[in-house]
Structure formats: C-alpha cells, structure tokens
Design a protein that fits this description.
Alpha/beta hydrolase fold; hydrolase
Length: about 350
C-alpha cells in the first residue's frame, strides 16, 4: 500500500472568522476554539515510510481500521537469522499532537529496531480533544487484537513482518503520553487475564518518561527550571490534561494519576516486568520515580533507569549536548530489556 504520511488525524483548519475565540493553546503546537475547531500547526514534518534511513530496516505503513483512520508504521530489521521480539509503540504528544509519521519518531524507531534487534509497530492512535481518553487506549487494545488476527490467522500480505516476529516476546512501549497509553493498555489486557490477545504473550512494558500527573505538585514540577523550548512545561502539561481527560475530570483521575487509588490497586494488577526511563531534568522526574517506587512496593518487577543531564523527550528532539551519548545508553538498555 502507499505510504500514509499525510496524517489523516491532523485536519489542519484555518479560522475564517477571527471573532471565534481560542479557548486553549500551546504555542506552536495546538489551538482549540470555542466552536470545537482544532488547529495543529506542522511543528515537526511528516515523512513517508520510504524516507531514507540507512540503518538496514524495512519500513511500511499498514491500516488497522480504515474507518477510524487507525494505522501503524512497522519497522523490520534486515537479515535476521532468528525470530525477533515484537514491540508495539505509542508516540508522545500529550495525547493531543504527534504522529507515527513524524520525522523524529521515524528516525528514533528505525534506529531502535536496528540496534535492539526487534520488530516495532508504531501506532497512529486517535488524538484529543476530538477523541478524548479512553479513545487512545481503545485504539491500543484494538491494535493488539489486529496483530493477533494477522499473526495467527492473517493473509499473506502481512507475512513480510509477521514471519519475523517471536510473538511470545511481545512488549508494549512508548514515550510520554505514549508511555501512559502503553501502561493503560497493559492494565486493560491484564484485567481480561490476557484472553483478548492470547496466544500473544505480553512479556514486558517499556515506559519512557511516562506522562502522569496529579492535583498535588511534585518538587520537580514546581522547581525544575525549563528552557523556553522545553518539550514539556508545567503549563503545557496542564493544558494537555484539560484537553484529553473526560470532561469534568481532574488530574487525580486514574488515567492521569495511577497512584490515586493507592498501592492496593496496583497490587491487584497482573503486570509483566516494567522498565521506566526517567530524565534527570524532566518536570516528570519525581512523579516517574514515585510511580516506580509504588510498583516495587506493590510487588511488581520494575527496572528504573535515570538519564543524567537531559530533559523530556531528549531521545527524539536532541535538545541537549548530552543527548547523543544518552540516546546510545537508552538504546543499550532497551535492547537488554527486550532480549532478556
């Protein structure tokens, strides 16, 4: 099929009437108007799956549900002698922006597939506020069901990637809002005792700078000085949550604050091992570390890695002199986790 790089979710619309009030805005990223229209300026370019990579990876786009404009970009390392772990990945963007076709994700995930030795499916889920949560979680679960259908009962057109996968080594992952999606999809699958995805076997969860929140501010949220071009400020975080949570919900909603119901709720969840990647200068640092501590207290297997001297989304935005070194460290950690 043709590359899906003209992202059908963006629907960039220009206001024909300046009197229409803008009620929410993150400068350069999203504007929401009182009449419900949404504008998303093209902050990062979209690229086709055929964009040059030079890392020995085959990349193609696939439709999961054409009616919902749900699609994914799949990365398959070349010349593998054995079947590879399979990582279903969700991009970041506060649930409101971002795309599997963004150039930064195309580069990062192609490199990750090559260096970690895994097949990656990057899901292009529905965005808020047009589709508030749990729409993205539902897209995540439906993507796994689609994978199951094609892994074991599918037609030949998907064999180019399914034949390369070890589906007993399935991982969910993502960064920022995508990490939140990965976690909540995993909990939904766990509630059913994995019956919705069997015989797929969820072996682990990779959470990179997971986007969680809460009404009470953490120290890093209150005191971490962020540069003007930071990928995530406290103000932007609050706006994303207002646009993505169900109407009337606050930041202690369980989808925003997984600790709002206490450790006992975590103890009930049947989760596989979790790897959490934390950035030292990220406003989410303390909240991410609290989450890791709570998982451990609830008896879950959790591996916490803190990357020094870098901020939120450093692995895709390269906004620090430390970024390249830290990216290589992250690639090594992710490779070890998905190949254990």
């Amino acid at each position: 099929m043709a590359a899906i790089f003209a992202d059908p979710r963006l629907n960039l619309q220009v206001s024909a009437n300046n009197n229409h009030a803008c009620i929410e805005e993150i400068e350069g990223l999203i504007r929401v108007y009182r009449d419900g229209r949404v504008e998303r300026p093209p902050a990062i370019p979209n690229v086709p799956s055929t964009a040059t990579l030079n890392v020995g990876v085959t990349v193609k786009d696939v439709y999961i549900d054409k009616n919902a404009n749900l699609w994914a970009r799949i990365y398959v390392p070349s010349c593998s002698a054995s079947k590879l772990p399979f990582l279903v990945y969700f991009h970041g963007g506060g649930f409101c922006i971002g795309s599997a076709a963004w150039s930064c994700y195309h580069e990062f995930l192609a490199n990750l597939a090559s260096k970690a030795g895994c097949v990656i499916m990057s899901v292009n889920y529905r965005l808020s506020p047009e589709n508030r949560l749990p729409a993205a979680y539902e897209d995540g679960v439906n993507s796994l069901i689609w994978v199951k259908q094609h892994a074991f009962n599918g037609s030949g057109e998907q064999k180019w990637w399914t034949n390369q996968c070890n589906f007993s080594s399935l991982f969910l992952g993502g960064d920022s809002a995508g990490a939140n999606i990965a976690y909540n999809v995993a909990t939904r699958v766990a509630i059913s005792d994995n019956t919705v995805i069997k015989p797929l076997c969820l072996k682990g969860i990779v959470l990179i700078q997971p986007f969680f929140g809460g009404e009470a501010r953490t120290l890093s949220e209150k005191h971490s000085a962020q540069p003007a071009n930071s990928a995530l400020t406290l103000s932007a975080s609050d706006t994303y949550w207002r646009l993505s949570l169900p109407l009337g919900a606050n930041r202690d909603h369980q989808w925003c604050n997984p600790l709002s119901n206490g450790i006992a709720k975590l103890q009930e969840q049947r989760l596989p091992p979790v790897m959490v990647c934390v950035s030292e200068t990220d406003i989410l640092k303390d909240r991410n570390l609290e989450f890791c501590k709570a998982l451990a207290s609830a008896g879950k297997k959790v591996e916490t890695v803190v990357y020094k001297g870098v901020g939120h989304a450093f692995q895709i935005l390269h906004n620090s002199q430390f970024s390249q070194t830290r990216i290589q460290e992250m690639m090594s950690h992710l490779k070890a986790f998905v190949n254990r």
